Amino acid sequence: MDNSILTEHQECEHSTLSASSAHRWMHCTKSVRFTEGLKDSGSSYAEEGTRAHELCAWKVAELLKIPGVKKPGFNYDAATEECADSYAAFVAEKMEKKAAIFLEQRVDYSEYTAPGSFGTADCIIMAGGTLKIIDYKHGVGVPVSSEKNPQLMLYGLGAYDALKDLYDIKHVEMSIFQPRISNISTYSMDLETLLGAAEKEFKPKALEALADSGSFCAGDWCRFCKGKNICRERARVNLTIAREDFALPPELSNTEVAEILTKVDQIIAWCNDIKDYALDSALKGESFQGFKLVYGRSIRKYSDEEKVAELVKGEGLDPYQHKVLGITDMTKLLGKKRFEELLDGFVIKPEGKPTLVPESDKRPAMALSDFSEFTQS
Question: How far apart are CA 53 and CA 13, in angstroms?
């Protein structure tokens, strides 16, 4: 196992039971064969995440003087660079004397799941008797927890399999670094617990998935499934929820409202996926009875901004809007050290708009005295 970036050939390979999709195939084993052959349409968010990972790997290599990692050949904004810099600093904190580090490393965990199973770990650190797995998340949606995270556990199993003859591994420490929503989560378990989970949970589910002998099961893991738009089970579950849980008496109790709240996001996500699928299909020539394609609303814009600016200047007027740079761009302009010296006392972080979340959310609850500020009369 070396600390070089994967070769182009390895990056193009695909694992049927990938670690990144483990949350899905562990719950919905039928989804593995169901999605075979389905095209992954991808998204701008996925591309953005891929580029952020490349930048993160280079930033770590640059900070820790790891050879063989090239600087990404694409442009990136100051905000993404700030995320990558903070990730590199986090990785550096996890390093110890004589520790070994491996970046963007392919790990094979077939021994603990099913043949041909592998994934790519963002960062693996072997320090003393502790195997450390660090995974970067660029998303701003749902906070990802490291606690018994199947993706990180599979990376841990693969790394253990590769390093067990070289190191006396006793513990596995798994970390999620999700900087855009300030989510840093670390969870540890002893090696025996991890191996036990492989035998009792991962391997049975993996073999069931490959044999296509399991069952469909809809849940939050559907979010990144290639078949989510056409899955009949997902449709059945969401339509059942809508019929049974929303057909309630005129006046709902708080208990009933709480029960509905646990399912609303799931239904909304499914409805939006269906709308996106139908629009994409219609643009390819397919038709849906009772619906037609039309141009949406649009706003006016200039056909040539430079020409507009030139003409307005000719009138003796300033065509540009001026405002103070944001914190990220200002930091880049001044440099981090000078920014802190000059402006640190002027940087504040106001509270965000109130939102209702499950009690499992790690953010502290608002104080009762804070409610009046947002209460509408």
Answer: 18
